[in-house]
Specification:
Flagellar basal-body rod protein FlgC; two-stranded antiparallel ribbon; cell projection
């Protein structure tokens, strides 16, 4: 594997975790949303990652063909029922006096955000380290 493939691998992880952070931000923004006029409520979304080959070119054979990176293959909705709170005075309450809120768990989303943020930071650090190593290698030739 060449040093340049490190940028492809870490770059794919940075891109995937950027999408993950956007989904987490959307989930956190909708923690306390209630069902709309059609009765549907916001459902928590999760990012699905998949390993894929990065840096492959025609005519290359494994193991030189590519390295494994990551990509987002899907964003799924959590179908667990939303939180129901008895509040008969709420304008969105149903006939029994219950208000349906989104199924987003703020604690789980904060943990997910911290994990995605650290993964993002670690991959940026990998790219910075690879850049420094390549610069040092170039300086050896001077």
């Amino acid at each position: 594997m060449s040093m340049f493939q490190i940028f492809n691998i870490s770059g794919s992880a940075v891109s995937a975790n950027s999408q993950r952070l956007n989904v987490v931000a959307s989930n956190l923004a909708n923690v306390d949303t209630v069902a709309g006029p059609d009765g549907s409520v916001y459902k928590a979304r999760q990012v699905v990652f998949q390993t894929h080959l990065v840096g492959a070119r025609d005519g290359m054979t494994p193991p030189d063909a590519a390295a494994a990176g990551v990509k987002v293959t899907n964003i799924t909705e959590d179908n667990t029922p939303g939180r129901r709170v008895h509040d008969p005075k709420h304008p969105k309450a149903d006939a029994q006096g219950y208000v349906t809120y989104s199924n987003v768990n703020s604690v789980e989303e904060m943990v997910n955000m911290i994990a995605a943020s650290r993964s993002y930071q670690n991959n940026v650090e990998v790219m910075n380290t690879a850049k420094v190593l390549l610069q040092k290698t170039l300086q050896l030739g001077q």
